Amino acid sequence: SLLASEASGACDMPEQSQAPLSEELPKAQKALGEMLLFVREFTRDVRLGKQIDLSASGSVVEGVVDSVGRNSQAMLGLCKLRSFDEYTYTHSINVSVLAVVYGKCLGLPREDLRELGVAGMFHDIGKTAVPEQILNKPGKLTHDEFEIMKTHPVKGRALLFRIGSLSRRILDGVLHHHERHNGKGYPNGLTSNQLGQFPTIIGMVDVYDALTSRRCYKPGMIPNKALSLMFGLRGEDFDAGHVDRFIK
After folding, report:
1. Considering the chain, what is the average pLDDT of its residues?
2. Residue 13, beta-bridge partner list
3. CA geometry: angle at 64 spanning 61 and 79, to 5°?
4. pLDDT at 240 over 90
5. The whole model's pTM is what?
């Protein structure tokens, strides 16, 4: 498939001259701070039923795209400084950044990176409609609780469709980020050859960040262990070519 051919091999694009890490870090920190503020306010307004303005989402993500273009290591380093008590916000930001960095590795053009970053930032917005006791439950979810949790991609897509004119690629990234390569995901049981780039990329980086994030009820897995676990799922949950390239 096209996705598999895109993902074959390592991230071996010729790099442009990179900005020094010390020079890029404060710029990356500023871009992430602006995104964190936007996500906090957006999530709060959704929960309060306020009028939502999506117009700033593109420019917020462009700051991340610009920083990744100058030196991706600054963004990746800052993503590791997560706080478990702000997981709702930092997870969305981390998924956005990881998706943009991986998209750059695939050679996606700037507009695609911007839309991919927006999709990553909004991928879990449907969880605002899931009860907090389910979201933060320390133990295993019951069957009924998991069925409620599984509604968040559909609810997120419906929310974004209702309040703004986002592209279909962004909406598909939100709706299908829990679909899996073997068709055993949700909400529609699609296989990887039925998915576009955005759901495939966001689904993979979402799992990686969730595994490595510390929560109030679990420690974060070290990156090497998380990548080893994902490697074991290649060809099942994830396309093998994408997993190999993401690890590299």
Report:
1. 88
2. none
3. 115
4. yes
5. 0.89
